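Batch manifest, entry 17 of 40.
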Amino acid sequence: MPNLIPVNILIADRTYRLKIEPADEEKLRKTVKFINEKIMEFKTNFAGKDMQDYISMAFLWFATEQSDGGANKVGLADIGAKLQTIEALIDKGLAI
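Output type: structure tokens
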């Protein structure tokens, strides 16, 4: 098994503990910061019932930005896998 390090990340007021490659830590932290900034932007500008609404808006924006050829283009397969992982984490958190 590769040398993984544990990291705690905070997305939308929830903490998640992940094990990642040390080389990926900076990229992960930048991504988490970007996600939280988008969520806060939508929370400030739009009415919503709960944090799930703002998370959905942020990910919808991200998916739309990718399909429009945005500057932060990533592979669609990566997006799908990451969204499934995030969805599983959210489902797990809601089940507690």
